[in-house]
Specification:
The complex is a heterodimer. Helix content of chain A is 39%, strand content 18%. Chain A is α/β, with parallel strands linked by helices. Chain A has a single domain (3-138), classed as 3-Layer(aba) Sandwich (Rossmann fold), CATH 3.40.50. By secondary structure, chain B is α+β, with helices and mostly antiparallel strands. Among the domains of chain B are: 2-170, PAS domain (Beta-Lactamase); 333-481, Heat Shock Protein 90 (2-Layer Sandwich). In chain B, the strands form three sheets. In chain B, strands 2-1-5-4-3 form a five-stranded antiparallel β-sheet. Chain B has a five-stranded mixed β-sheet with strand order 7-9-10-12-11. Classes of the chains: A alpha/beta, B alpha+beta.
């Protein structure tokens, strides 16, 4: 019996969401993926506020954050999570187009668990998502309090 | 003035006045003494000549009548003059006729028996004067009187003169000392004031200080000139400071402009990095998904889809290269001594596995240069991978790396290959961004490598150029300033 862990994907671009979900599907990774459109929604989900207020308790096994999002960006979400004792242990992976050094430096300074630059070639992107999904969604043991779903 | 060494002006003045007056007095004293001596001599000689003539005249009859006794009596009259030590009367045939001795007890023979050939005259014998005068009778010499005279009187007089003169000299010098010590104050005071002012100016760098004092005379002129000079310096200094302030203001302004331009550039490149890549990724991604599904597309459709994804990934590469190129121009340079030989060995080792057919590497020792290790690594790896790429279709590929020439402060490195080469007509285009001399289907690449090489070498203060010939290979040169202290 394997347990599938919940993944939170924060991504404002619909195309990217679709490609990411397609890549996950390509790899037959059936994890539950919660998609939010910006940083505010991501935090709402994590804190069970707004439209997520009725959600049962439980943290995702991993957060895949885009850097550049409207209202609240990925780094801000990361900063808020790392400052909160209830959430600072949740693994966070930055999934972005940017190879800019300052983004990298700032992400690691804030305590990101991984930083992945989305490759242009779709096949490479599929590979990257596969690796990520396998590692964070299957292999890695998330902190206590994460939501699991029996497959 | 070297005579006084570095004594103070005051001491110098006193010494000068004393030395001056002392020297003058000495000269005057010496001249007076000399004249005194000459006068004494002349007077004595005159006196003795008269005495000799009188005695000669009185002895004339004694000579004529051959009466030596009478002659001696006459000679004895010379006793009246204590300076006369003795006298002798000689006949015409120059034989001693009569003598007089002041001190007969001494028994000394003062007069010779015969008179020498010398005629009338006088000569000095030790501290004595010997004077001879002919005795004339009817104009003819009938005999000769010789008088021996003591000169001690003259030397005594000389001693007395020196003592008196010495006392006068001493007294005068004391007076001169007293006078000059009082007078020097008038002269040195303004000079010392001027010197103190000059010292203050040079110590405090305060050019608003002015020397005061009498404006007349040479020292007055000095004071005026000194003050004018200070005013000049003060004006120049304030002008200089104004210019410097202006310059600093301009530097600050330019720096701000540069920083603004740089941050704009950074923002631009950031946005390229984030926003331009995303749509390309989407194009590539959906094209590939479509390609993989492949449903409902004919051969032409699939071909077009392939072209879309190829174009998209090409665009992705170009953007990545452009971002690297832009980063090369903006990122801060690390300064270190870089051993190019070691760096090149690493670069070649890493590149080697890509090569399908063996390359004849000819690597000569390279110097240690001053620069950014990561950037210089990129330079070498770009040049080496270029050389490898363009010798890919050569039968016996050969790549040489070495020092082309060493010009003391900078060194020129050359990477040469025997690959496809290039037409020198297009040599100027080689180092441009995305400039390529070959079609993409001949040799892959975006054409950013040499642009990066040029940018990095320029930032190191060096130059880049290339030589080549179609089908016969190419040589790429770059110059770098040498490290000041080569690391062992």
């Amino acid at each position: 019996m394997s347990e599938l862990k919940r993944i939170l994907l924060a991504e404002d671009n619909e195309n990217d969401v679709e490609l990411t979900l397609a890549a996950l599907a390509e790899n037959r990774l059936a994890n539950e993926v919660i998609v939010v459109k910006d940083g505010v929604e991501a935090l709402d989900y994590l804190y069970r506020r707004g439209r997520f207020a009725s959600n049962p308790a439980g943290n995702p096994a991993v957060c895949l954050l885009d850097l550049k999002m409207p209202k609240v960006d990925g780094l801000e979400v990361l900063r808020t999570m790392r400052a909160d004792p209830k959430m600072h242990a949740i693994p966070v992976v930055i999934l972005t187009s940017s190879r800019e050094e300052r983004d990298l430096v700032e992400s690691y300074r804030l305590g990101v668990n991984a930083y992945v630059v989305k490759p242009v070639k779709f096949q490479q992107f599929v590979e990257a998502v596969k690796t990520l999904g396998l590692f964070w969604g299957v292999l890695n043991e998330p902190p206590v309090g994460s939501v699991r779903r029996v497959a | 003035m070297a005579l006084f060494g570095n004594a103070s002006v005051r001491l110098k003045l006193i010494l000068a006045s004393i030395l001056g007056s002392g020297t003058a007095l000495l000269i005057v004293g010496a001249v007076i003494t000399e004249f005194d001596l000459i006068a004494l001599h002349a007077r004595l000689l005159n006196r003795m000549t008269v005495q000799a003539d009188i005695v000669g005249a009185n002895c004339l009859s004694a000579l004529l009548f051959n009466d030596p006794k009478s002659a001696e009596d006459t000679l004895a009259a010379l006793k009246a003059d204590p300076r006369i030590l003795g006298a002798g009367l000689y006949t015409a045939d120059r034989k001693l006729f009569a003598t007089y001795l002041r001190d007969p007890a001494s028994g000394a023979r003062v007069m010779d028996e015969t008179l020498g050939d010398a005629g009338e005259g006088h000569r000095l014998v030790g501290d004595r004067l010997r004077l001879s005068r002919d005795v004339l009778f009817n104009g003819a010499a009938t005999g000769t009187v010789v008088i021996l005279c003591d000169l001690r009187e003259i030397s005594q007089s000389l001693t007395r003169d020196v003592v008196i003169f010495g006392s006068v000299l001493l007294l005068s010098l004391l007076v001169a000392l007293a006078i000059s010590s009082r007078l020097q104050r008038d002269i040195t005071q303004p000079i010392l004031h001027l010197a103190a002012t000059a010292r203050r100016v040079s110590q405090d760098k305060d050019y608003s200080v002015r020397a005061t004092g009498d404006r007349r005379g040479e020292i007055g002129a000095l004071v005026v000139a000194f003050n004018e000079m200070l005013e000049e310096i003060r004006q120049q200094e304030s002008a200089l400071r104004g210019a410097q302030d202006e310059l600093e203001r301009r530097v600050v302004e330019r720096t701000a402009q540069l920083q603004a331009a740089n941050s704009e550039l950074e923002a631009f490149s950031y946005s390229v990095s984030h926003d331009l890549r995303a749509p390309i990724r989407h194009i590539a991604g959906f094209a590939e998904i479509l390609e993989n599904d492949g449903n409902g597309l004919d051969e032409a459709g699939r071909r077009h889809l392939k072209k879309i994804s190829q174009a998209a990934s090409r665009m992705g590469e170009l953007i990545d290269d452009l971002l690297v190129f832009s980063r090369m121009g903006r990122s801060e340079m690390q300064a270190a001594a870089v051993n190019l030989t070691d760096l090149l060995k690493e670069v070649v080792r890493e590149a080697q596995p890509d090569v399908k057919h063996p390359i004849d590497w000819r690597i000569k020792p390279l110097p240690t240069v001053h620069g950014d290790p990561a950037m210089l690594r990129l330079v070498l790896s770009n040049l080496v991978s270029n050389a490898m790429k363009y010798t890919g279709k050569t039968e016996h590929p050969r790549i040489e790396v070495g020092v082309d020439r060493d010009e003391g402060r900078e060194v020129v490195i050359c990477v040469r290959d025997n690959g496809v080469g290039f037409d020198m007509t297009y040599a100027s285009k080689l180092f441009g961004v995305f400039q390529r001399l070959h079609r993409a289907d001949e040799f892959e690449g975006t054409g950013i490598g040499l642009a990066n090489v040029r940018r990095i070498i320029n930032r190191h203060g060096g130059r880049t150029w290339a030589e080549g010939e179609l089908g016969r290979g190419a040589a790429f040169y770059f110059s770098l300033p040498k490290a000041k202290e080569p690391t062992p």
